[in-house]
Amino acid sequence: MTKDIKTIDDFNFENQTALIRVDFNVPVNKSYKITDDTRIQYSIPTIQKILSEKGKIVIISHFGRPKGVPLKTHSLKFLVDYLSQKLKVSVSFFGDCIGETALKKVNKLKNGEILLLENLRFYKEEEKENDNFAFELSKLGDIYVNDAFSVAHRFHTSITVLPKFFGKKKCIGLLMKREIQYLNQFLYGKGKRPITILLGGSKISSKIDIIENLINFADYILIGGGMSYPFIKIKGGKIGNSLIEEYEKTEKTLKKIFHKYQNKIDIIHLPIDVIAADSFKNEAHTKTLPIDSIPNGWMGLDIGPRTIKKFCAIIEKSKTILWNGPMGVFEFQNFSSGTRSIAKTIANITEKGAFSLIGGGDSIASLRIENCDKKISYLSTGGGAMLDSLKSEMLPGIKAII
């Protein structure tokens, strides 16, 4: 945690209006029942602290991608009852997030009251770092609080421009504070050793910088999922029709990593075998193959049994574990074994005293399938923001607070 970042603990909110930027972009079903309320749950302590100090609260958030069009399907109104129940306070709602009427509503707030404003993304300016939109939003509070870690990597008006209008009266909330503290355990190698980083998913381009940054202090970097195939291809392996993202873009960089870190390359562990399929569907014909011997017409869709055994053995001797990204196409039941085995193993080792930090929707979803999400030390609310932090970059949303 850098000393320059003010948190809500640095302010007294009595008689002050806190403008809190949260990320309540939560998954919902067709009847707008929330299917995963993690992000809201994690922001509740911030809201409660301000309420306990007799502050007034104005909540701003986005929901979905309405692209500047006010759509009923993307309104935040569905959150009112849920928030009122969770906070045991009546939450009021206004169907806009700027303008004279919104300002009047804010000015009528009494200490301990909460107003939820409409979806920021109903204005296209939100995603364009717009000064005028930021100025209009800034009229709605005395102190700006950013508690939206999951969008802190975005250059959006309410994240990067809005804080400028608050001078020194800006800070992060408790969710953001926890995220930064836990990520710092990895960024500065502070965690107990051995430190294991597990990276999966298909996008290798977003994770190359992370590998370069973490290779300096991780004991093990395990690479699975679609991002393992470019490594295998560079080493001369046959990967058949396995999905490979932006290979031309990443080939040079990967070769550079292999060359630059020759003495540390044994830290990186790739899959040994895969469950290969003859088509991209759950009912495809399958066979278990060495990862570097996949024939044309076949594609690797999950890590194989030998890899599961190898990866799980490494995890079991680790004291600090970070995981982002699935090991295969885990939304297909027949190709979910690798991801689910990893989830269970991390949960088990956490129960024995290891520290685990997991981010990314798919990784967290796999933990929920196995009913072991409650056994993890910390579930990060932001996949993309977590990845950007691990590149050792200060997130734009945090930089804007300093």
What does this molecule look like?
With 402 residues, the protein is an alpha/beta fold. It folds into two domains: 8-176, 3-Layer(aba) Sandwich (Rossmann fold), CATH 3.40.50; 188-390, Phosphoglycerate kinase, N-terminal domain (Rossmann fold), CATH 3.40.50.1260. Helices cover 33% and strands 17% of the residues. It has 14 helices and 17 strands. The chain has helices at residues 38-52, 79-87, 100-107, 131-138, 157-161, 174-187, 208-214, 229-234, 247-260, 305-316, 337-351, 361-369, 383-390, 396-399; strands at 17-21, 56-60, 91-94, 114-117, 143-146, 170-172, 195-199, 220-223, 238-239, 268-269, 273-277, 286-290, 293-294, 299-303, 320-324, 355-359, 378-379. The strands form four sheets. Strands 3-4-2-1-5-6 form a six-stranded parallel beta sheet, with helices on both faces. A six-stranded parallel beta sheet has the order 10-8-7-15-16-17, with helices on both faces. The chain has a three-stranded antiparallel beta sheet with strand order 12-11-14. β15, α11 (337-351) and β16 form a beta-alpha-beta unit. It is elongated and about 70 Å long. The mean pLDDT is 92.
SSE arrangement:
Blueprint: E1 17-21, H1 38-52, E2 56-60, H2 79-87, E3 91-94, H3 100-107, E4 114-117, H4 131-138, E5 143-146, H5 157-161, E6 170-172, H6 174-187, E7 195-199, H7 208-214, E8 220-223, H8 229-234, E9 238-239, H9 247-260, E10 268-269, E11 273-277, E12 286-290, E13 293-294, E14 299-303, H10 305-316, E15 320-324, H11 337-351, E16 355-359, H12 361-369, E17 378-379, H13 383-390, H14 396-399
